[in-house]
Amino acid sequence: MTCDETRRAIDPWIDGEAAAPEHLESCTGCRREADARRALHERLRALKLPSHPAPALRLRAPAPARRWLPMVPSLAAASLLVAALFLIRPAPTEPVPDLVARASDFHDRIVSGTIRPEELSDPAALRSYFRDRLKLDVVVPPAGRDATLCGGSCCDAAVGDGAFPCIVYRVRGVPMSLLVVDCALPPMPASARRIRNGQEYYVFRCGRNTALLCCSGSVCHLWIAAFDEATLLDAVLGTSVGRTAFSGERLTLAGVT
After folding, report:
1. Which domains, and CATH codes, for the chain?
2. Can you say whether the dihedral through the CA atoms of 152, 156, 159, 163 is positive or negative?
3. What is the pTM (predicted TM-score) of this model?
């Protein structure tokens, strides 16, 4: 038995709960430790405690703690949590028009690879593609700053029969779709309305995407990308058609016979 093991066994031995450790016979240091603890035990046993506390002690005794005081920190934390949830909860949004929601879903399918657009980086070639497929003469705006033209596809987001031209860009590495729409649109919610340079446009959140809708005459341009509103607007103004739309000039989409 080591010295540490012996010293742990001294108190049980003094209390009569264990036999004397054999190590005490050969270790002077452990015997001194045992003698000191035995003397302490004897002094403690000799002490006589009063059956009742002294009056002075009773006067200094603390009053019973109010049970609700320990709950104060928890209640304060709960109140802060409720307030934080109230402040950070998303603001209620207007329902997204069906056309915008369907167009956003079409954009997501392009991003995921479910739909593979025609890879045409030349605006003239993409214009010929839409002429052949949709019988429409679509002005394909060249990519602006920090952007490249990737191609196009025929979007089936139209409510009912028909399809729309969808031009696909990559802006700062992020895909952006531009849909050219020529149809009657329902009234747009007032909360989505914005004005820039006298030009009215609408902004919607569609999941992770932001959609920006700008109309001139009967033609509407719908840009969609996984950007916030400010970044998307900056990307839109980087294209020639975006600058034209926000300058108030009339945009046209001509049919081809």
Report:
1. 1-89 (no CATH), 98-255 (3.30.200.100)
2. positive
3. 0.59
